Amino acid sequence: MSRKLLIRLVEAEYAIIRLNVGTPIPEWLPGPGFWAVSSSREEMTLVCRAARVPTSVISSNGWRCLRIEEHFAFDIPGILSSVLQPLSAAGVGLFANSTFSTDYVFVLGSDVEKALAALKAHGHEVTL
Questions:
Q1: Which of 21, 46, 48, 125 has a beta carbon 3.0–4.6 Å from 17's, enabling a disulfide?
Q2: 1 belongs to a structural domain
């Protein structure tokens, strides 16, 4: 895809949490910023700002959120790929999540500078 995107680095640190299927959605999950619940037959995954996660909950912390600022039809091919490909080529691990209107890509804080450089080199505009 040749379209270049506007991508914003969200200020907050995020956490990714794995819970057992059937676990009630925790009351601390909803709040400011992006948050999501995904469930499959194997697990339930939560994503939210790390500051909301109780210390008693096992989570993967230190994730930074890259938000595609443009809204588009979710069936347009290549949008997410145009972000994931340069990150993969730069050796940046990631966790992706989509909403109806846009995509969110999470990278570890230790890789954020490498991720931003890769996206800019690919022609995307990155804002902080």
A1: 46
A2: no
